[in-house]
């Protein structure tokens, strides 16, 4: 008799050409990932060759009950680390049956910005540092923390090792390998300052693909925590008090910034970001005011600042960038629950073709 695990791990390619495609989209809250699967007659490696599909938008807060059909448009394909073989994960965005993008479809607006000729010419690169907190299921308290109590103060946990410092490493490492398998350009992981908090980095990714890859990586992480009986939180300040919050620091460069004389281009770009500080903050994630307090390696939410190697500023420029006179900078303001389509496209818009 087969075990359940044997059946889950069946290699479909031994008996059929058919594959399973898991269609993934963002629900009405802007952070709730949804997915459902369908069988396809054979392997697919181009999203344009995938069929569009519908779902009940009234159940995801994206359509009224009397006109609930919403259409999924496939946009990016990744290998499925759960079903493996030729099976795939499909990142989709959402439209009405008439072809109009839903208000929650942030990818559509981002794609328009990334297709602007000025942006295309600058080949914008992104590296997103996605911080998150692992929680114990049912109690909404960080993994490894005593129930109703607190661990020792911050200090030994950042990049720490040992059973008393690193909580949930099996989940983190499983996620890392699953993302590499999927074809996501994940560039690293580390334990963060608050115990139970971790980070993965996606990039460098070009343009719209940065958002696709971050959403795919978030989906894989939520699926792995589901298997592990834990919960992942992207709240920017999951524990009040003297604990670090969770951000999504966004590293960014353009072709002009990466070439000789790029440091002057970087400084002009940062100046423009400062002029639109309020607009960016409004788009950089819910609850970010609880995180951006001017403490715990953040700048105050109401004041724009930048500096070289300064983790207490809104925007940080690395020592290497200053020394070489070219490179990239880091926008430290985005919260962990930001929409990567919104943040990446807004940074490109402001720095490349927005006119003060």
Task: Name some characteristics of this structure.
9-stranded mixed β-sheet; ATP-binding; Creatine Kinase, Chain A, domain 2; nitrogen fixation; alpha+beta; Gln_synth_cat_dom; Gln_synt_N; 28% helix; 5-stranded mixed β-sheet; 356 residues; globular; 10 helices
Question: Would you mind describing this structure in some detail?
Answer:
By secondary structure, the chain is of the alpha+beta class. The chain has two domains: 100 residues, Ubiquitin-like (UB roll); 237 residues, Glutamine synthetase/guanido kinase, catalytic domain (Creatine Kinase, Chain A, domain 2, 2-Layer Sandwich). The strands form two sheets. Strands 6, 7, 8, 9, 10, 11, 12, 13 and 14 form a nine-stranded mixed sheet that branches. Helix 7 packs across helix 10. The radius of gyration is 21 Å and the shape is globular. The mean pLDDT is 95.
Specify the biggest β-sheet.
Answer: 9 strands, mixed
Tell me the distance between the termini: 70 Å
Structural class: alpha+beta
Q: What is the helix content?
A: 25-40%
Query: Any idea of the CATH topology of the largest domain?
Result: Creatine Kinase, Chain A, domain 2
Q: How many domains, in number, for the residues?
A: 2
Oligomer: single chain
In short:
The chain is of the alpha+beta class and 356 residues long. It has helices at residues 4-8, 106-114, 117-122, 169-182, 208-228, 255-258, 262-275, 277-283, 319-324, 340-353, and strands at 19-26, 33-40, 53-56, 69-79, 88-95, 125-136, 141-142, 186-191, 197-206, 230-233, 248-253, 306-308, 315-317, 329-331.
